[in-house]
Write a structure and sequence with these properties.
233 residues, alpha+beta, Ribosomal Protein L9, domain 1, Ribosomal Protein L9, domain 2, three-stranded mixed beta sheet
Length: 233
């Protein structure tokens, strides 16, 4: 007679699914909240939304960005919506003023580099944001610096800063070798570019003069051939 041995310690599927506490762990829970202010990419102040329970309890509520959608808090929606509009306009105005202050600003970042101008490391958006913050006295978040890839070479780079969906500015980032004067490097680069441009202009003029001379020689040659033709006389 064959007997099936059953481990009394191993729970059956029926036991697992009949355990509401265990099931609850596998289910994602949500809660309804009222947003007290704008949260970029999530909601605007005064909106009521369902969000993940952990997101609400661990971030939104402790940071006073949202509150549970209780009866009392739902009564505040109109006031919260109006206040959010006021705050939004103030933020926009502040960002416009900041953009006006930093647009066209030059920042210098000294780095270690090889003889070929390649950096031993890189310049990141965080480094640029820190420099701008130091100059302006206002904190600039790294995510606002629109730098797709870290800078790995010496030189001057135009880096856009997106302060607000409606406001942007451009910053000139001068990456120079540590211990070197960035202004001198820039002047040397400008002189080098000027010499190159002048040489290119001179070469172009020489080519143009040569072409004109060749055309004249050909024209004179054709004229002599026509004059020497016996049929003409």
């Amino acid at each position: 007679m064959m007997m099936t041995l059953q481990n009394s310690q191993s729970p059956t599927l029926a036991m697992i699914y009949s355990n509401p506490q265990k099931n609850r762990k596998n289910q994602e829970t949500f809660m309804e909240v009222v947003f007290l202010t704008d949260v970029e990419g999530v909601a605007q102040g005064g909106e009521v939304k369902e969000v993940r329970n952990g997101f609400a309890r661990n971030y939104l509520i402790p940071q006073q960005l949202a509150a549970p959608a209780t009866h009392n808090n739902l009564q505040r929606i109109k006031k919260l919506t109006e206040q959010a509009k006021v705050d939004r306009l103030k933020i926009l105005q502040d960002m416009k003023e900041l953009a006006s202050a930093i647009d066209g600003t030059e920042i210098t970042i000294p780095v270690r580099a090889g003889a070929n101008g390649r950096l031993y490391g890189s310049v990141t958006g965080t480094m640029i944001a820190d420099q701008v913050s130091e100059i302006t006295g206002r904190t600039l978040e790294r995510r606002l610096v629109q730098l797709d890839d870290p800078i790995r070479d010496l030189g001057t780079f135009e880096v856009p800063v997106r302060l607000h969906p409606e406001v942007s500015a451009n910053i000139s980032v001068i990456v120079h070798a540590d211990g070197e004067d960035p202004i001198s490097e820039l002047e040397e680069d400008e002189i080098s570019e000027s010499i190159t441009d002048a040489e290119n202009d001179e070469i172009s003029e020489s080519i143009t003069d040569a072409e004109e001379t060749t055309e004249q020689i050909v024209a004179d040659s054709d004229s002599n051939i026509e004059t020497d033709d016996p049929k003409i006389s």
